[in-house]
Amino acid sequence: MTILALIAFAANSVLCRLALGDGSIDWVSFTVIRLLSGALTLLLILKINGVLTKPRYPDAQVTGKNNQQSLIKQQQLMLKQHQSAGSWLGGVMLFVYAASFSNAYTLLDTATGALILFAAVQLTMILLAIIKGARLKLIEWLGVITAFVGFVYLVVPDINSPSMDGLLFMTISGIAWGVYTLKGKQTTQPLRDTCANFVRSIPLVLVLFLVSLGQLELSDKGVWLAIIAGSVTSAMGYSIWYVALNGLSATKAAVVQLSVPVIAAFGGVIFVAETLTSRLMIASIVVLTGMLMVVQGKSQSKK
Predict the structure, then answer these.
(1) Where are the alpha helices (DSSP H) in the chain?
(2) How far apart are CA 2 and CA 241, in angstroms?
(3) pLDDT tens digits, residue range 116-163?
(4) What angle do CA 301, 151, 98 make, to 5 degrees?
């Protein structure tokens, strides 16, 4: 399950690049189709599992005051959970992540985008933890500095590689995904909450679509790639990841995600015919090493 989830994460980058790299679809249409198809897929999954069925009220034949009260409390709890699934913050962050992600991939190659995204996610989570009062150990500070050095090496001295606009959009995407991840960290119903967040992103999706009318560019290839990205590698990929998390510690979950940029890089070479540059390879090693130092520091502090 873990391997499938990591492949799905990397595939999001590859699919987005395949669709946007040759102009098969514009980034707005890709975002709209991806989120809408993801929402529909998750609703279908929940429907199949019977999660969206109406709560059943106590049967008239149930006897005993305690049994009736227990059933009533269960129904009230189910109804409350159904009504409070997800959050508007989660929906907004999901939309910001997806829109910035698509926009960035009109300017970045697959490997560079994935590296910036997942490094920004980790750094966001670290900074938010510091703001909340967490204290970093020396190895964690060294890891943060190492990762930052890797970013500097990636963009300097060749300021056009990667595109600074692409770097900005993908960083925003990573920040949004980091906030989204932290928001849902304590959820007891991740699949339901994810579905609710996808649904809550729809109003923003429609606004983006309406303000971009007349500038949309669509092709069969681009539409199908967006549907696959939304239904398979996003909706189903996130669902698989939640299953995998049941067998992973927080440290292992963080470490294995650092392999996504590497998988995406090879996917870009195989499917998008991209070239791995020495600068990107060195920057990847430095950034991922820094992230690994931070994760190891957190692991040691919990022992």
Answers:
(1) 2-21, 27-48, 65-83, 88-104, 110-131, 138-155, 164-183, 190-200, 202-211, 220-228, 237-245, 250-257, 260-271, 278-302
(2) 6
(3) 898 888 788 778 877 888 777 888 788 878 887 887 777 665 545 668
(4) 85
Residues 6+ apart with CB under 8 A from 100: 169, 170, 172, 173, 176
Residue 235 Rama label (left phi>0; alpha psi -120 to 50; beta): alpha
Q: How far is residue 269's CA from residue 136's CA, in Å, rounded to a whole number? A: 37
> For residues 29 and 257, is the Cβ–Cβ distance under 8 A?
no
Distance between CA atoms of 226 and 276, rounded to whole angstroms? 25
User: What is the C-alpha to C-alpha distance for residues 92 and 176, in angstroms, rounded to an integer?
Assistant: 9
Three-class SS of residue 164?
helix
Contacts of 109 (CB under 8 A, 6+ apart): 17, 162, 268, 272, 274
Both tokens of 28, joined, read: 């707005």
